[in-house]
Specification:
The structure is a single chain. This protein is mainly alpha-helical. The protein folds into 2 domains: 124 residues, no CATH class; 76 residues, no CATH class. The protein contains 10 helices and no strands. Helix 1 packs parallel to helix 5 and helix 4 crosses helix 6. The longest helix is centred in the first third of the chain and has 25 residues. The radius of gyration is 17 Å and the shape is globular.
């Protein structure tokens, strides 16, 4: 159980690394939370600081979800009758996402967790990732709203998991991620309904 606790904490701390905040400080000397949408995420960094930093931040945030799930089980193996290897990965993924959304380094006020969630899903359920990503691409190309594309991708994920007949624990995991993803976009939803949401370009 010690290995489990240590690995969960490490996954959370990796997820807590505020990539967009760091890039904003290093490149422009600004607090990204005070500019644009105020979100500590790749999209806001893309708009405020630049396209290249935004894209790099996106991939780093994905790695924050992908790497803990793939690497930590190698170094922190567990022997438990109540926790399967897949469930262990789900816990690590959830911890990394929680770190991004509620980072200890920014007083628990972080980003929306879309990229980090994508990294986790890619590591655990690559087919589900491809289905959700295809939905994201379709909605984004059609409407050019990153937020709306992310919401539809979040909604697609649990549906894809159920259609693929994954274990119940994985379905619950996907539903929880979907709820968190939509909840974190509540201000975007409000702006979309008012016609005030900005397109990426």
């Amino acid at each position: 159980m010690i290995n489990l606790a240590i690995s969960i904490v490490i996954a959370y701390l990796i997820g807590s690394i505020p990539t967009a905040y760091i890039f904003g400080k290093l490149i422009k000397g600004i607090d990204i939370r005070n500019y644009g949408s105020g979100n500590v995420g790749a999209t806001n960094l893309f708009r405020v600081v630049g396209k290249v930093p935004g894209v790099i931040s996106l991939f780093i945030d994905m790695l924050k979800g992908y790497l803990p799930v793939v690497i930590l089980p190698i170094f922190f193996s567990i022997n438990s009758n109540s926790l399967t290897p897949d469930s262990y990965k789900l816990l690590l993924g959830a911890s990394a996402i929680m770190g991004h959304v509620w980072p200890v380094f920014l007083k628990f006020k972080g980003g929306k967790g879309v990229a980090t969630t994508a990294g986790v899903v890619l590591a655990i359920m690559p087919i589900v990732f491809l289905i959700s990503f295809a939905m994201w691409i379709f909605v984004f190309l059609a409407l050019r709203y990153v937020s709306l594309a992310s919401i539809f991708a979040a909604l697609t994920m649990p549906i894809a998991v159920m259609l693929l007949k994954r274990p119940f624990s994985t379905i619950v995991f996907a539903v929880i991620l979907c709820i968190i993803g939509i909840y974190k976009h509540k201000t975007n939803i409000s702006r979309l309904l008012k016609g005030e949401e900005k397109r990426l370009f």
